[in-house]
Each structure stands twice: as structure tokens, then as C-alpha cells.
Amino acid sequence: SRRRRIGFALWMLGIxxxxxxxxxxxxxxxxxxxxxxxxxxxxxxxxxxAFPPLVVYISxxxxxxxxxxxxxxxxxxxxxxxxxxxxxxxxxxxxxxAIVFTQHYGKEAGELVSAAVSAPIAEESFKGLAIFGxxxxxxxxxxxxxxxIIYAIFCALxxxxxxxxxxxxxxxxxxxNVLAGTFVLRGVFTPWLHPLFTSMTGIGFGxxxxxxxxxxxxxxxxxxxxIGVTLHAMWNFLPTALGEQMGEMFIIWLLLWLLFVxxxxxxxxxxxxxxxxxxxxxxKDEVLLGSMSQQDLDLVCSPFGxxxxxxxxxxxxxRSFISAASKLALSKWHTMRAMKGQKRTISADFIAPLRQQM
Length: 358
Hints:
single chain, mainly alpha
């Protein structure tokens, strides 16, 4: 509980500083433009293009994470961190890097270093801090790889939404056709690239949470972060380096990345199915103990269990039962792994209370 309070205080501090930085960036973008009034209108228009699609984007990870969904307040914290903190700090670092390299090596060098080196490192670092926060300060809400991916997706969607406001605003200044093209590229074809990059860090922390091997626990987050930064740098490098010369090659480049995203979602689905099997395996003994029936077990492990409770007599009580049973299974899973590694885990302390709650 003390660790959770410290984590919340650090989150609030980051949010406050992030809000200030985002306000300063927005004011600078408006006041330093050739037509401040036109730019202000363009930013409002950019927000109208950036935020409504979030309803669709956010619903997809919520649908995928069906067996033990994360609390709404955790998802909101991840989203706000990405939208306010990661954008604010990464924007500040990228701006300073661009200015320094432009002054010393020219505009093209400044853009290339900022986009292909500074942006991947700074953006993935500050988005990754959100995942580390859940991993360290809210350990009860972080069970494994799937949780790491879900937190990463929500954080990255928050980041991308604010970033898109700026992209759409600049495109709107250039004309409606440019705005439409930018929206199709960023809002339709590539909205999942930021979640893909950041999910590598989420997978790393998830593997660390699941493993009892000290080398995996230490190195998996570093490896995941490195892969995320590398993928981000690859995406930014070629279009920035070639500029208008990218031409038809960009279509092939885009298709390649869409295949990456498709593979990414296939991996998520496989991991969610694995999580469901883990929950079932660690609840079978509860049927033998008599704390739940076989029908209860089937309800908990059904992909549509929560939905069926919502539209049946079970209602909120049924959803609470599924939540307690899922957390009980995952606590037993963590405890079993800890015992194999001859270590102790706080998850063991939650087994009896969760069984009683169930």
C-alpha cells in the first residue's frame, strides 16, 4: 500500500508537468505560426479528427483481454500518461535535439536525427515508464505478458492521439486533401504502430513478471525496450531519409508494416488463449475442493462469461465472481512459479481471501 501511494504521487507529478509542457507546446505552435488564428482553428480540427476514432481503437484491446480485464482506472492512468507525460517530455527532448543538430549540421540532419534517433529513444522511454510503473507499483494488477501488452496499447494510444492532433493540424493548414491523406495514413492504416512499438516493452516486463529466472527478470524488459526502439527507428528512418524520393516504395514499406501489425495481433490472440487455459488449469482443484462447480468453471473460462452475466440474472455479482476466480487462479499460478524457484511471492497471501471472496 505504501508502494502504491508513492507510485500514485509520482504519476500525479508526471501528469502535472506533462500538462504544462503540452500547453507550452500548443501555445508555441499557435503563436509562432504565420497565422495564429488559422493555426488555432486547425488544432481544433485536428482534435476532431484524432479523438473520435479512439472509441474504436480502445474497444479492440478491451475485447481481447476478456478473461481478466484490467481495472478501468489502471487503463485510464496508462492512457493519460501516454497522452500527457510521454508526449510532453518526449516532445521537449526531440525539439532540443532537432534545434541543436540543425544549428550544427543543417536542417536535413536535424530532422533525421530527431526522427530516427531521438524520437524512438525518448518516446519509447517515457511510454515504457508507464509499464514499469504498473510492474513495480501496482504489482497486483500486473500478472504477465498480456497485461503488459494491454497497458502498453493504452499508453501508446494516448500518445498517438495527442501526436495526431499536431499532425492533422499541420496538414489542415496545407489544405483539405493533405488532411484527408494524413488521416487515412495515420488514422486508418497505421494507428497500431505506436502500440506495436511500445508492446515490445510490455512483453519484456510481462516475461519478467512471469519468470522466476533472475536473468530473464533482469534482461527481458531491456530486450523488449531495445526491440521497440529498433522497430520505431526503422519506421521513422526511411521516409525521413528519402523524403519525397520515397515514391512508390512507400506503399511496399507500408504493406510490410501492416504485416507486422497483423502478426502482432495474432500473437496477442494466442497469448489471451494461453491466459484462459492457465486460469482453467489453476481452478480445476477448486471444483474438487467444492468451492466452485464445473458450471462455474466453464463460466469463468468462457470468452463470453462476463457478457452472459451482464444479460442474465447474475449481473454485477456474476462479473465479480468471475473477477475473483480469475485473480485466484493467477495468484496460484504466480505462487506455483515462485515455489519452483524457491522464492516467496505476495500472491500467496491473496489465495485464501480471494477464495473466500469467490
